[in-house]
Amino acid sequence: MSIDKVVGSAAEAVSGIAKGSSIAVGGFGLCGVPMVLIEALRQAGVGGLGIVSNNCGVDDWGLGVLLADGLIAKMTSSYVGENKEFARQYLSGELEVELTPQGTLAEKLRAGGSGIAAFYTQTGVGTQVAEGGLPRRYNTDGSIAIASEPKPIQVFDVDGEPREFVLEEAISTDFSLVHARLADRHGNLVFDKAARNFSPVAAMAGRVCIAQVEQLVEPGDIDPDQVHLPGVFVDRVLVVGIDVEKRIERRTITEGA
Predict the structure, then answer these.
(1) Alpha helices in the chain (DSSP H)
(2) What is the pLDDT of residues 7-61, one digit of tens each?
(3) Phi/psi zone of residue 133: left (φ > 0), alpha (ψ -120 to 50 degrees), beta?
(4) 70 and 47 in contact (C-beta within 8 Å)?
(5) Region of residue 186 (left: phi > 0; alpha: psi -120 to 50; beta: else)
(6) Strand ranges, E, within 170-205
(7) What does DSSP assign to residue 56?
(8) Buried b (16+ CB within 10 A) or exposed e, 141-150
(9) 104, 168 Cβ separation under 8 angstroms
(10) Whole-angstrom Cα distance, residue 250 to residue 242?
(11) pLDDT in tens, 196-229
(12) Are 4 and 231 in contact (CB under 8 A)?
């Protein structure tokens, strides 16, 4: 029996994403960002979204375009420094932000996709990450409207030494959006170098995973050892072509080059 997950349009790919949906999105900076799917979501005008991603793009690219249109209600991310509109919305109380250490965020997504409810890590012990009090939303007057809650701490013996660990809950979302270099019709994905970044774990965390891909091949054409994400995690595949626009966040060149 053939399982063909290819859809015919970006609008069809993001169909079903409704107001208030939670979405895990792959990408790091502007590398590996599923921009065609993001733009389709923007065109659909679906708001109140809870987005989980390493960062929120820049003001005119990546997830920043959803932010600019007021479609994101909450961001769970580890880095927010390249987006002025993000900072404005956060400080003015328009946007809720859950800042999470980068490695912890990756593991929370992986755990969510693996059926693991929570895990212990040393990252954040002795800081507001574990102790609570991080501002998640401000009031318009600058006071804190919502602060993070304290997290459970447990002591474990590591190499004969007692160490404190903080309990982090897994993340699973209604949908996930990723960009891949190669896919087959069954949804097996291959990412390109650094564009792999958060994409596999973001894809795993979504109950419905939507992948935009540059090239499509037939089942069996990808060496199983080369598959970065098995098709069991992927529900929809949208072919966007190898000429899809990719932006460089900061271009650095040598003088005279």
Answers:
(1) 10-13, 35-44, 64-68, 84-91, 102-114, 128-131, 199-205
(2) 999 999 999 999 999 999 999 999 999 999 999 999 999 999 999 999 999 989 9
(3) left
(4) yes
(5) alpha
(6) 173-184, 189-190
(7) -
(8) eeeeeeebee
(9) yes
(10) 22
(11) 999 999 999 999 999 999 999 999 999 999 999 9
(12) no
Among positive and negative, which fits the CA dihedral 49, 53, 54, 56?
negative
Residue 79, both tokens: 């880095």
Of the candidates 167, 251, 238, 243, the one whose C-alpha atom is nearest the C-alpha of residue 209 is 238
Burial of 115 per CB tally in 10 Å (0-12, 13-18, 19+): exposed
- Count helices and strands (H / E) in the chain: 7, 13
Pairing of strands 49-52, 22-25: parallel
Residue 131 host element (H or E): helix 128-131
Hey, how many other C-beta atoms are within 10 angstroms of the C-beta on 79? 16
Question: Which residues have C-beta within 8 Å of that of residue 209, sequence separation ≥ 6?
Answer: 175, 176, 178, 187, 203, 233, 234, 235, 236
**Side chain identity, residue 30:** L
Could you give phi then psi for residue 41, rounded to 5 degrees? -65, -40
Rounded to whole angstroms, how far apart are CA atoms 206 and 128?
Answer: 28
Pair type for strands 144-147 and 161-169? unpaired
Distance linking the first and last C-alpha atoms of the chain = 54
Amino acid letter, residue 135: P
- What is the C-alpha separation between 130 and 68, in angstroms, rounded? 31
User: What span, in angstroms and rounded, lies between the C-alpha atoms of 105 and 81?
Assistant: 17
Structure-block tokens of residue 102: 């980068």
Q: Can you tell me the distance from the alpha carbon of 199 to that of 245, in angstroms, rounded to the nearest whole number?
A: 18
